[in-house]
Recover the amino acids of this structure.
């Protein structure tokens, strides 16, 4: 991919971000749009022609799948992003992680991503933002806490009922400095939340200066309150004005940076109207939160899919499942397909391989939508969303509204008329209340 210098000069965004899965990428898109930034999320790094067609833009996102990849695959995935960052030189490059930071040295390594991307940015240090309060994710003295579902109890991440038992990347360490050290980011310095108050003995700026003078190259910022993000944003933006900066973390990075950016538009809250036709949902997440949402989806025809059989190489089960979904949709029925584990199967190296299952979900969606395009759909599950979207013939997304924190509605951009303008919700397993799929049908 080559981007010419004149295109670079005209279309350099203030903020460039890469989402390590598609659900998180859409949350950051919504965050930027709601902050008044002219924003677009692309499904791949842009060509010269695509970049020029976007026009003036404040925030450009790239939706990816790094969260599910091994280190060698991550290198292939992120090399074009690093090249794009070198050429565009945004003020901030945001590597968007899941708000629970679930990752491992051999799968979705955040440390690996930092090593791949940091050479593309002039700043000699990397910021790591540790929480996202609007999703009930908090970082205090370097330790991560997260709610169990919308409005649920808050747990230290290594005691979280779901994330501590994640089938691929279980979170066994709450201290993000120790967690990321296992991925090669050793010697992380900390800016504690207590330094953000005006009467703090040691301000955040003074602590940052001391860390930098000590040679610290990775700095973790606590986030205990929503108001902390304004302080963090001011510090990051000031630093980025001197040398463009790599910042790592959930959508709170964009929340923080956007709060410090000048000349933002005022944006009215975007509601979501009722669906104009049958709605399709693919729930590939096996989380308890998604299971409760499926159980509460009274407006839907529920089709339960055997997860192991869906991944079979001959594709016969996948094709028959697609036909069943097509029949329901053609009859005008809202249809929800959810994967269920076979007896004795797991999604962690047993009968079911998580990556293969996500890819099979993408093939299923492609088969269904070729037969019966819909005006609104949803995909639940980070990996399922990422691979499902890559199976569709589309090139981008814009923000259209928000059903719940972490659950935005986006509008598909495609050169295929049947897909262009389709509304789509991509949500992680932990996002949204029990009535989320009902709200998808009836509006909010």
């Amino acid at each position: 991919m080559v981007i010419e210098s004149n295109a670079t000069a005209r279309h350099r965004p203030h903020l460039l971000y890469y989402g390590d899965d598609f659900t998180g990428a859409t949350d950051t898109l919504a965050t930027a749009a709601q902050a008044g930034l002219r924003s677009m999320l692309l499904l791949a790094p842009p060509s010269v022609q695509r970049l020029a067609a976007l026009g003036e833009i404040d925030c450009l996102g790239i939706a990816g799948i790094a969260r599910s990849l091994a280190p060698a695959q991550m290198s292939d995935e992120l090399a074009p992003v690093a090249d794009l960052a070198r050429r565009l030189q945004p003020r901030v490059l945001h590597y968007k992680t899941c708000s629970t930071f679930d990752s491992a040295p051999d799968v979705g390594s955040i440390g690996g991503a930092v090593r791949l991307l940091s050479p593309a940015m002039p700043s000699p240090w990397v910021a790591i933002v540790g929480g996202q309060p609007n999703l009930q994710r908090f970082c205090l003295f370097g330790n991560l806490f997260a709610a169990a579902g919308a409005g649920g109890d808050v747990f230290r991440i290594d005691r979280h009922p779901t994330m501590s038992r994640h089938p691929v990347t279980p979170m066994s360490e709450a201290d993000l400095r120790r967690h990321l050290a296992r991925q090669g980011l050793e010697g992380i310095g900390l800016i504690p939340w207590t330094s953000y108050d005006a009467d703090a003995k040691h301000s955040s700026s003074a602590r940052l200066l001391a860390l930098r003078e000590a040679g610290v190259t990775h700095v973790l910022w606590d986030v205990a309150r929503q108001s902390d993000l304004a302080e963090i944003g001011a510090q990051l933006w000031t630093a980025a004005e001197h040398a463009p900066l790599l910042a790592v973390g959930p959508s709170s990075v964009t929340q923080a940076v956007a709060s410090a950016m000048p000349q933002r538009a005022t944006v009215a809250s975007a509601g979501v109207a009722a669906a104009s036709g049958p709605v399709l949902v693919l729930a590939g997440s096996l989380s308890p939160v998604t299971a409760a949402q499926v159980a509460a989806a009274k407006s839907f025809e529920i089709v339960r899919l055997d997860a192991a059989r869906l991944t079979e190489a001959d594709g016969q089960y996948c094709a028959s499942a697609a036909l069943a979904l097509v029949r329901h949709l053609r009859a005008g029925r809202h249809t929800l397909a959810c994967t269920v584990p076979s007896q004795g199967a797991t999604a962690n190296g047993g009968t079911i391989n998580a990556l293969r299952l996500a890819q099979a979900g993408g093939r299923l969606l492609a088969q269904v939508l070729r037969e019966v395009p819909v005006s609104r759909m949803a995909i639940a599950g980070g990996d399922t969303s990422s691979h499902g979207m890559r199976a569709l013939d589309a090139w981008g997304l814009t923000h259209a509204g928000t059903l719940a924190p972490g659950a935005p509605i986006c509008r598909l951009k495609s050169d295929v008329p049947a897909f262009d303008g389709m509304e789509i919700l991509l949500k992680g397993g932990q996002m949204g209340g029990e009535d989320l799929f009902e709200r998808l049908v009836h509006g909010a």
